[in-house]
């Protein structure tokens, strides 16, 4: 073909690739015209056999004559081949043609049988006796072993030459795709073989230098003969194996084959005469002067040929002809012709890209009709792989990529598991020299990756990483670009994989190929945008630059150190930052080290998850420790020490990150077993997949299911359908596929699934929950069924109460409004309510219950336990337990559909808790959400458990025991032990005159107390005492008088005094404010009406106080000072006492330094997180955090009376916090009084119990006060009157007036007299020193315990 510009203008730039394809297709047709029309391989084999039967081995004929004989038989048999290929019918009268067909079939059957046995035609033509076969076998085997032994030394000399040649050719093949380079490979073999052979020859001459003239000639001859001997050894061994196969055939079989060959010989000779070949080929070719085709004859000819190079070439030709024999149906079966063959042919021969796409679309649609198993049964994928790896045809490579694109686009997502293993083949096409092939491969990869759901990110990334590590430079660029395509559709999944993916991408940044490095930088930048951390977003380019260029680490650390971090730091952010921080910690600059530890300190404070901290932050501990202990500058060491403490507090460990607890292989195996067990019947057979490709699809599905289970994603049915049901859609119908996905979720992995058949669904809501910048719940589902009682479990601060408050206020996304779902929250207190009303009036005053008649309110109160008498009591005087019942009654009057119970057992005694359990169980039409740390209550009440796990609500059917059975790590709900939560109480203050821990510091003697406005006393004749060693538990039913007893014992020091009825002014006391005061000048004034503005200040006046009084209607400059006695005389007792209480609190608060860091440290010692204590408002704290805050406030002043009165301290505290509190109480040195209905907590700490019931108190257990130890007179040691057992028989009244505390006189004569020590003279000092010297010498000589230095003159 001649190409000219005028004849082919389409080849001038710009070039249209379609024109190029048309031209190359035309050239391909011209070049391959002689190949496509050539005879089939079967016809060539048959013609060769016919020629061998015609001119058997030993016939003297030239090679050209032999080839011409084969061609003659080929042309004679070709019409049969054409008829079979083109399906041409012939008439039944054409006898010659039918005979020719039968001959061809018989020859082929004969050749196939010989190929199966592995013997030649000559062994059938001239059969050998069995004894001859055995003798020849022995001779051949002995001869082959002898020749091999003879050639072995020479083969050792050939090894360097073989190794050099192999290494050279191997490296040459790695330079790029191999097309028509076999000649170049032969040149490489020749050049490197010759060069290495000469080196071996020279080395042999040097080694044998004394006889070098002989070695120079004999060494090459020996090496050449080694090859000849080795070839003959191989030939002899081949003859041995052929004889062995012949021996195994059997006599009768050989005889039958011999008869069959005789028949074929006659028919072949008839055909030879018909086509004009000589009748006697052996004599004819001898007369014609032909050379022997088989064995050589003559001694000289044999010797000459043995050493000739032409013999080697003849053997190569014979080896080539032997390939015909090897192409038997056993060794290489004919390619099956299926109904997909025309589609492959169309795909292979498509002249243009649109034609290839059309053929590929037709192939994909045919696969859709035949089913996905046809990809395997018809070798479609293998054929496309063969097309893609055909180095000699760019058309096939491009067509293969186009075909994969069509399969992905037409078959859709269900075909993904079957196409994913082909990614490595397509990425290899990125290295193709043709632009169109690379473009087609890129489009195919994008089409396949587009099918991947976000949940498959880990599996797909693992496949891509393997290709990245093994691929060439264009392949690496393609993989790095593929990573970026997952950022938008699978943002969270990509973020979760950053820890394992970024190191691989970072390694690619340092690739020697600049294109790979640039692609890796772009890919890392895009991947890091998934961090979802607004504080780090501006620094992503700098962070990526640090990965590619470590020299930029100081600049990056400087930028980070000037950033204020406020957002939560999660695992993806740490995956990016920790490698950078490790590099910075190893920097030699003190400034970089200082900035680094500051950044670490700031970042770690925002890591909320201890598991994430332990996994990602542990590698930093070693580097920070080195800086904290070994930095040159003290300032840097101080910053390092602070950062180290923050690291360890967050959960990081110096022992390194914890080993992973996830067995991915085991989880995948369990998931696969579940998938197989739930397959529909039409695609399953005997407990296994019915199709092989379905098994491959299940492998991918099982990996995705394992990830879904690990992430606790059970309630999103769309996700399960996308990850399981979709892939079964092409194997069965759509309904069965959807049901399969739901069955997998429910059968094995759905922790709680509820159908509408089980009851009315109150809500099914997908939502997120945050408090400030802290994300509490992320994209989780709240699903509630009417009549169920759900227990919510989670640690303090996880957001349980916040969730309930948001539900109450209707702020949860998509939660039904109050008009559709009446939601009422029952809390433990009535803060902000009017406590002066009676119980009945209090309920009736609720605006939401304005239309409810009082009779219905009365009945509801009776139902929860308020009899008529208690309904008249004032709400402010109710105990905590009765307040809870009051709130419950009000909630039921709201006709609540959903009850939100936040710690409902707080302040309830055992009987009340039992009543509450029965009450909630009896109301089967009301759904309850319960937050409680009372494990027994949850065990008895709940029907389901909602557990906080990784910012998700996870549902578990059954009560708390069932939940703990499934999750043994949750057994802490039943134990009382301090694990991760530590409390540390400050040391108590000291009391003057109290030197014994068993001495009474607080007492009540025969006390009877009645609240104002009541006729019945709350306490009757109560006597008790409290010492520093006391650990007292106050128990009793609600309203029995426990709180009243403690308030009286502590002299009324109550933080809520202003809220109680004892401080509320009566009408008579209010009229006192209207009386006039007459001044010294005769002017009349009245006091300010408001109590808070009446008294403005207080100061000391002799042994009492005087108060600054504000006058009504006058400015502050007219304030005057009035003595305490005058105010009492005028009837202003309660305002004065109220102001005294406030001043006492202020004076106590001022007794300690209130610097922020000291207050923070104090709160941290009580178990409250320092950051929460310093930056959060009290209104945003959870119930448990508020309890910790109250305990910290009580202990802030190191109270003068070293006792802790803990009123229901277990309320709102989780089990770990409760354990930490118990340990702190045991270790505290002051007295402890605990009012609690938590029997487990009280019995574990308090050996002494005050049981208060109906206003009367009884002692139980061991009393911690020993009265006899505090008497003025000394009692003998060991006397019975000085033992704790003796003291139990006495009452605290005995020492009521006999101690300085009881009398109020600290200078009582009972105090011991302290004698003033007399000053020693000089002689006495010398004598004392002499005595001490003698004692020391005696001790040195005799040994024993060292004597004390004493001033006693009687001591030696």
Number of strands: 22
Mean pLDDT: 76
Assign the structural class, choosing from mainly alpha, mainly beta, alpha/beta, alpha+beta, or little secondary structure: alpha/beta
Subunit organisation of the chains: single chain
> What fraction strand?
5-15%
Portion in helices: 40-55%
- Biggest beta sheet summary: 6 strands, mixed
Please state how the strands of the largest beta sheet are arranged side by side: 6-7-8-5-9-10
List the total number of helices: 57
**Which spans of ≥5 residues are poorly predicted at pLDDT below 50?**
84-93, 290-304, 309-335, 748-756, 1053-1061, 1266-1313
Based on Cα principal axes, name the global outline. Answer: elongated
Distance between the ends: 132 Å
* Radius of gyration based on Cα positions: 50 Å
Q: Keywords, please?
A:
1356 residues, alpha/beta, six-stranded mixed β-sheet, five-stranded mixed β-sheet, 22 strands
Description:
With 1356 residues, the chain is an alpha/beta fold. It is 53% helix and 9% strand. The protein is built from 57 helices and 22 strands. The strands form 7 sheets. The chain has a 6-stranded mixed beta sheet, with helices on both faces. A hairpin with a 2-residue loop joins strand 1 and strand 2. Helix 17 runs parallel beside helix 20 and helix 25 (514-528) runs antiparallel to helix 26. The radius of gyration is 50 Å and the shape is elongated.
Write the layout of secondary structure elements.
Elements: H1 17-36, H2 41-54, H3 63-86, H4 95-117, H5 121-125, H6 130-173, H7 182-207, H8 212-249, H9 251-274, H10 281-287, H11 299-306, H12 309-326, H13 341-348, H14 353-370, H15 374-377, H16 380-388, H17 394-411, H18 416-419, H19 423-428, H20 435-449, H21 457-470, H22 473-484, H23 491-496, H24 498-509, H25 514-528, H26 540-548, H27 553-561, H28 571-585, H29 590-604, H30 610-616, H31 618-630, H32 634-650, H33 664-677, E1 684-685, E2 688-689, H34 692-710, H35 717-725, H36 734-749, E3 761-771, E4 774-785, E5 789-793, H37 800-809, E6 823-826, H38 839-844, H39 854-864, H40 868-871, H41 880-893, E7 898-902, H42 910-922, E8 927-931, H43 935-941, E9 944-949, E10 952-957, H44 960-966, E11 1000-1009, E12 1019-1027, E13 1031-1035, H45 1042-1049, H46 1067-1071, E14 1077-1078, E15 1084-1085, H47 1091-1094, E16 1095-1101, E17 1104-1109, E18 1120-1123, H48 1124-1130, H49 1133-1149, H50 1156-1165, H51 1170-1175, H52 1183-1194, E19 1203-1207, H53 1215-1227, E20 1231-1235, H54 1239-1245, E21 1248-1253, E22 1256-1261, H55 1284-1287, H56 1300-1303, H57 1322-1342
Parallel strand pairs: 5-8, 5-9, 6-7, 7-8, 13-20, 13-21, 19-20
Antiparallel strand pairs: 1-2, 3-4, 9-10, 11-12, 14-15, 16-17, 17-18, 21-22
